[in-house]
Amino acid sequence: MFLGRVVGEVWATKKSADLDGRRLLVIQALDERREPGAAKVTPVVAVDPLGAGFGQHVVVAFGKAARVAAGGDGDLAFEAAVVGIVDDFDVPGAPAHWRSPVPDGEPKLRSGS
Amino acid sequence: MFLGRVVGEVWATKKSADLDGRRLLVIQALDERREPGAAKVTPVVAVDPLGAGFGQHVVVAFGKAARVAAGGDGDLAFEAAVVGIVDDFDVPGAPAHWRSPVPDGEPKLRSGS
Amino acid sequence: MFLGRVVGEVWATKKSADLDGRRLLVIQALDERREPGAAKVTPVVAVDPLGAGFGQHVVVAFGKAARVAAGGDGDLAFEAAVVGIVDDFDVPGAPAHWRSPVPDGEPKLRSGS
Amino acid sequence: MFLGRVVGEVWATKKSADLDGRRLLVIQALDERREPGAAKVTPVVAVDPLGAGFGQHVVVAFGKAARVAAGGDGDLAFEAAVVGIVDDFDVPGAPAHWRSPVPDGEPKLRSGS
Amino acid sequence: MFLGRVVGEVWATKKSADLDGRRLLVIQALDERREPGAAKVTPVVAVDPLGAGFGQHVVVAFGKAARVAAGGDGDLAFEAAVVGIVDDFDVPGAPAHWRSPVPDGEPKLRSGS
Fold this sequence. Notes:
The structure is a homopentamer.
Chain A: E1 2-15, E2 24-29, E3 44-47, E4 57-62, H1 64-70, E5 80-90
């Protein structure tokens, strides 16, 4: 699992049936390599059963854990899911941008989600 | 899962029987480390049950999710598959090249797929 | 599995039911790329069935191994867990910061855990 | 799965019984970070049920897919296998060294495999 | 799987019961990014059912393969294991430090294992 921030959303009409009706969020891991205004590592696409909004911090799980969290069944066509929306974190050595919900200069999602 | 772009295709005569009749796409993750005209991270080879074309944005899943998406059976000899063809995405902080379907200077696939 | 150090904790009210009552630690892998006072690689969020404290060295396992270690059941919504609290390690080529429990300049966790 | 090139072979007398009689190839992923004559990313060790030779391009699968491809049974002590020997690929943006079977200055394997 | 070198050992009194009585080795992947005397990528912690010693080259497997190799049962709290002790390898493009069993300037393990 990793601690990330919701940075976007993806829409697909043509997709695996298991993805029907599920939000697909784009989530950026929080690490130290990020400079303000620019995503720096490859983001993850995750289904979101919890209703996270743009800029929120989330915990993302992979693999079977994601299917358990989002579907309750091991045989689904996704392998990443939001398993927690973070209220607060305490990481003393974290850089300042971990704390800011929406870094300066980043517009909000069009959908306002 | 990750958000990527179809950058090529691979053909193999000698292969695991489970790959017979399946397209093998080469997919580049969309991240910020890419400069125009040059792939910058190791691409993924994925089976494609959805018929994605060169330059299209896709969501790719790994592991059992890929087998569920592309075969419906857990015992197949691949572990990456296209699970969605992206119509649109909303990632406010994304660099400009995420949006462009085919970056300048990149020729199309020979097969025109 | 990897050798890491507990650098923080995360709290989430809205989360997968399988995470109820479990501590979610933020753990930084020990590698050579870390400079004093700054986390350098993406940290992992792991459940902790062993009661590790801030600054302690731990061994973290992924996937089913994590669910076995922390729950005893394969169908849980997490995929990383502390499987050992390190008493000592012997890695002759390790940089000095591997040994220091809390690098200079890093405050302790608010919770003092 | 990834697209790689066979760059070597490994021999082990003391090994898991499941590896008896299986070739263990060293395979370098094809990415853009490679300069001529120098491997640049950590190579993968994979079993090879298909008989790939030095310098050939292959598709490598991980996890259960590898066990299905190379053994037909989910309970084997390896998690990477060659699942295809590439005849041709079409990746318009690929750097020139992707195409060259054996980069200049790299000797062939002793075994000539 | 990857080709690595044993660079250390870890001891934990408080640990998952499945780790009782198992050696936990610290293993550095052999890649080109290593300079003499300094580990450069995050090492892996693996159980060792084969008795590898400091400085030896080993093949390490992840996930279920590791549990099969080291325990014979799929439900164990680890996901990395030594599956082979390398007698010899033939990787023509490998840098010189791949061959040296113990790089200059690196002391041996205290335990002499």
